[in-house]
Amino acid sequence: MSEDKKKKYTTVSIPTPLYEKIKKRIEDTGFTSVSDYVTYVLREVLASLEEEEKEEVFSKEEEEKVKERLRALGYLD
Amino acid sequence: MVSKPHGDKLVRKIAARKTRERILSEKDEFPKLTVSTAVAIDAENIAHGIYSPLTGFMRSYELSSVLEHMRLPNDLPWTIPIVLDAPEDSVNFDEGDAVLLFHGGEVIARMYVDEIYRFDKKEFSEKVFRTSSEEHPGVRKVINMGEYLVGGEIELLNEVENPFAAYTLRPVETRVLFKERGWNTIVAFQTRNVPHMGHEYVQKAALTFVDGLFINPVIGKKKKGDYKDDVILRCYEVLFRNYYPTNASVLATVRYEMKYAGPREAVHHAIMRKNFGCTHFIVGRDHAGVGNFYKPYEAQEIFEEFPDLGIVPMFFREFFFCKKCGSIVNEKVCPHPKEYREYFSGTKIREMITRGEKVPPHFMREEVYDALKSFDDPFVGEDE
């Protein structure tokens, strides 16, 4: 591996039977290596987790309007 | 953090100011459909995201998925059909048309009609209510529905007149309110009753485990013998003022017509509260039930089918007052025999009130009883 590639990649360990299972699964797919496949899956998982963490976003103006009504009704001080 | 809306996105289907003005100025050019109060309120609930992820009234493929699988076609849990019914002579438009929905002579929404279809009332009733008996108030309503259902997206143009506007909060408001109060976990309590000590005990027991309590009485049509809306609200106001921690509890109403669909409706109630931002939902004995149509804990058991609901049900067994313990307890914590137990029977309390008898303080707070007694007739007279 070139020095450049070493800096961009690191090694993680997975159980050998899982490695073999993935190797078999990616045969005849667009994935050229187990590493590519694992990277793809992990990105998918992380993206979906991040999606879940997203907070409800209101515009500042909208939130202020809502707070105004809540104050008027006595729900907020 | 508060619950994400059901389907991840809070639906907002309220016409922008300019669009609204334009549609209203051209209202005579649209086909019109007059709808019932229940449908008008459903339209409002869709528009304000209370029924997220629904953006309109159900089409036939959505209805059959809900009836058959208790899920929307995308697999999201959904147990109660949200449909717009119309008698044959009112369907003076075609699929593909934009129609204005009217209620009480006022335009309330614009609807893009995707589908006009017939439905099987018996199948609808048997799936939703688990019965087709006309003794069931929900079945009776289905029988009286129009022959056609109209499915399609809506956009709200006007709110339906609301006598309890000052107590009506929408999901966008409760979500801001919970955030401002710093609550991450909120338990919702759905009610169509005046509060007795059993209710208070359950609510406060649930509050022990979370940051905030959201009492959310249902305002809308009810069946004969239920408490009137203003009675429920007045009694809760009194209870809140005297016995609830204001920094940890909120009282706000939701407009919705009870279906009395027991288990299915319990899940629906939970989904609505999830959309308000609640993380937990109290499910008691015979939730949303009527008569003996459902087993006492059927509405709790159904939640096993929905591990992906996204709101945590909090199940409570029946509470009672034990004369030996001298407090409100349940079977799990009370070792005493049945003769010491006094159950919080809504029917019994109603009968006492009707006879003009005082409800004892271990059943109902005196302030609540006084508020209740200040009404000449606190009960709904006929099925509305």
Topology:
The complex is a heterodimer of chains A (77) and B (384).
Chain A: H1 3-8, H2 16-25, H3 34-53, H4 60-72
Chain B: H1 17-25, E1 32-34, H2 37-47, E2 56-57, H3 60-69, E3 84-86, E4 98-103, E5 106-112, E6 115-118, H4 121-128, H5 137-143, E7 148-156, H6 171-180, E8 186-191, H7 197-207, E9 212-219, H8 229-243, E10 249-251, E11 254-255, H9 262-275, E12 280-283, H10 298-301, E13 312-315, E14 319-322, E15 327-330, E16 341-343, H11 346-354, H12 366-373
Parallel strand pairs in B: 1-4, 8-9, 8-12, 9-10, 9-11, 12-13
Antiparallel strand pairs in B: 2-7, 3-7, 4-5, 5-7, 6-7, 14-15, 14-16
Question: Would you give an account of this structure?
Answer:
- The complex is a heterodimer of chains A (77) and B (384).
- By secondary structure, chain A is an all-alpha fold.
- Chain A has one domain (3-72).
- Chain A is 64% helix and 0% strand.
- The termini of chain A are far apart.
- The model of chain A has no long low-confidence stretch (mean pLDDT 81).
- In chain B, helix 4 (121-128) runs antiparallel to helix 5 and helix 8 packs antiparallel against helix 12 (366-373).
- The radius of gyration of chain B is 21 Å and the shape is globular.
- Chain B is α/β, with parallel strands linked by helices.
- The chains are: A mainly alpha (77), B alpha/beta (384).
